Amino acid sequence: MLSESSTQILLVVVSVAFLALLILTVISFFRRRRREIFTAPQSQDLSQSPESFAVSSLFEATMGSMREGLLVVNKDMRVIASNPAAHKLFNPSMSKLNSQRLTELTRNPAIYSAFLDALKGVERSGVKVQTHGPERQVFDLRVVPIGGRNGDGAEGALGVFFDITRMERLEMVRQEFLSNVSHELRTPLTAIIAFVETLETGALEDVESSKRFLSIIRRNASRMHGLIDDILELTAIEGGNVTFRAGTVDLHALVNDVCAAFAAKAAAHDVALVGNVQPEVTVYADGRRLEQMLTNLIDNGIKFSKEGGTVTISYKPGSAATGERDQILVEDNGDGIPAQHLERLFERFYRVDRARSRDMGGTGLGLAIVKHLALLHGGEVTVSSELGKGTIFTIHLPKA
Q1: With 0-12 CB in 10 A as exposed, 13-18 as middle and 19+ as buried, what is 343?
Q2: Which of 98, 146, 359, 397 is the most exposed, fewest CB within 10 Å of its CB?
Q3: Residue 249 sits in the same domain as residue 237
């Protein structure tokens, strides 16, 4: 299966090929009719012959179905053709863009300069254009000259606005991810190097100090190992490169197994684990992936519970008839999470309390993994929290 980034690249390649073909078609259309279009009055009927009517109909249908904005101007920088996507981009409140000067539609110097160069016979591509409305959009503009083979410049210019907003966002996510990974690796690596240098300069002779330093080195090395494992796991899940075999899972037995695995850690934090799932309860899931989700959520619950606290795992059945999904709840009675953090809680490397999370060995990827595994099941994971009372994570799984 293709990853999201690979799919985006493939879509871009296909779109570019389509746009290249479209531009050639449009240029051919305007070259065949340039004398009529660029010299005739705007009110003149340009569809007099059956052949012209057929070509015009095809051209208008093609332009109308395009997601990309298309704008054609004449020598005077007046719009002589546009499509609905361009209309939406420039001025949705106007009845039409035709006959408007380009400067009346936009004050963006990059757009004006690209069209001006095209009228001089110079093709422009890779022009980045940004809008600053309620929703910021980013476009890649390509402008080509139309006609004008006698050295007098072009008779017009055709511009295509390709929406690359999603690609820009993906690139920002990628850069942020790399920045976070570098930061997360740098901290334990710096500690390891520092304590190794301390040992090399004579601390080995002090048995107590050397044991303490080696313990710190081991802890930071384990943290790096855990981070790398989580990055690889998350990358595989997001790329669709994980095995997924859904079937009937004995939830009672699975919860007991996970609680048993965390018994020592829970005891060390003075936290009680309560598996409140009745025998014979089953859910439709991939047993291994569901265990991963419960492991991450129970581990979080133990870390952020108060001393003497409780982490409870419970189950609420859904209904295939009504479309309600099965729910698995992991509830703690810790300090709770402020409301402003809940929306971003499942983002990669997002932490409510960065210092506390790192001290407890968290990688910042556990909840992101839970989110993507839930989506893999066709479900979701949600969170609700109240300050001073605790937090509830809920895994929603479709019925079989």
Answers
A1: exposed
A2: 359
A3: no
Q: How far is CA 145 from the centre of its chain?
A: 36
Q: What is the pLDDT of residue 266?
A: 92
Q: What proportion of the chain, given as a percentage, has pLDDT over 70? A: 78
Domain count, the chain: 3
Q: CB neighbours (10 Å) of residue 381?
A: 24
Domain boundary among 130, 163, 196: 163
> Is 337 found in the same domain as 293?
yes
Q: Do 275 and 231 have their domain in common?
A: no
CA 277 to CA 316: how far, in whole Å?
A: 9
- For residues 159 and 172, membership in a common domain is answered with no
pLDDT in tens, 138-155: 888 999 888 765 556 778
Question: Are 339 and 238 part of one and the same domain?
Answer: no
Q: How far apart (Å, rounded) are the C-alpha atoms in residues 275 and 256?
A: 6
Ranges in the chain, pLDDT < 70? 1-64, 92-95, 133-134, 148-152, 353-362
Domain encompassing residue 173? 168-242
